[in-house]
Amino acid sequence: MTHEHRLASVIMVAALTLGPAACNNPPPPPPPPVPAALPVAVAPPVAPPLAPPPVAAPAPSPAQPVAPPAVAPPAPAEKPPVKEPTKEPSATPAQPTGIVLPGMAGLPKATGENAIRGFWALVDRDKPAAAVALMDPALKGGAQGAAAWKANLASIDSVQVGRVSPWSAEKLPDGVERYKVSLNVKCKADDPANPPPIPHYGWSNGNNIRWMTVKQAVPVARISAIDTGP
Fold first, then answer.
1. What tens digit of pLDDT does each residue of 86-137 get?
2. What is the secondary structure of 93-107 as a DSSP string?
3. Contact at 8 Å (CB) between 22 and 14?
4. Pairing of strands 156-166, 222-227
5. Residues near 131 by Cβ (< 8 Å), separated by ≥ 6?
6. Residue among 13, 14, 39 nearest 27 (CA)
7. How far, CA to CA in Å, does 25 sit from each of 16, 31, 153?
8. CA 190, CA 198: separation in Å to the nearest integer?
9. What radius of gyration, in Å, describes the C-alpha atoms of the chain?
10. Which of 43, 131, 149, 172 has its CA 20 to 30 A from that of 122?
11. Model-level pTM greater than 0.70?
12. 3-state class (DSSP) for residue 72
């Protein structure tokens, strides 16, 4: 059987099976052709990142020479102390001229001002008997005169010596000095049971001026006059 005979047999069988509708209906159109796939863009291969170049290790620095520890020089040997030669005491020790009392540092020795300030320092310390002892015998007289001067100075509660000025209104013998003395005096209250001949023995509270004469003597200078006028 040829190919044409087979095709005719198939058509006949189909017609018999499907009936007349099959012969009247045209065969379905063939499916539309499938479009060809679009080309997919392929990304170009990415090159792997380059590794950083190797860092060369720093060359080791040469070792610095270590200085040897400083050695302190040996301490010099101490010299034995030199013994000062002993001075022989003078056969005739010098006698002091003038008086030196506490609080009189810086004042020259053997001066009338030194003697005057020392005298009133004793009065200010309530030591009238010691002050009377510095008077020249001609001024204080005997025991009665010394007691009168002691009572006079004891009436002073406090005294501060101000300016002491040399007073040379007349020619004085050698070794005799006269001064005008400014005194700031605070008097004690007079004893009503035994009042002095004049109030406060002539002293007044506040500034008092006296002219004092100093007579140089050995071993101390002496107060030879205390006057209310030159």
1. 555 444 333 333 444 444 444 444 579 999 999 999 999 999 999 999 999 9
2. PPPP-S---TT-TTS
3. yes
4. unpaired
5. 119, 120, 122, 123, 153
6. 14
7. 14, 17, 173
8. 10
9. 70
10. 172
11. no
12. coil
Q: Which residues contact 152 (CB under 8 A, 6 or more apart)?
A: 128, 201, 202
Greatest pairwise CA separation for the chain in angstroms: 202
Residues 6+ apart with CB under 8 A from 161: 116, 117, 120, 121, 181, 182, 183
Residue 34 in tokens = 């499938």
- Residue tagged 């013994």 (tokens): 83
Cα(201)–Cα(158) distance, integer angstroms: 15
Q: 87 is written with which tokens?
A: 């001075």
Exposed/middle/buried for 29, CB within 10 Å: 0-12, 13-18, 19+?
exposed
- Greater confidence, 228 or 28? 228
Q: Which residue is listed with tokens 């198939």?
A: 10
Range 224-228 average pLDDT: 95
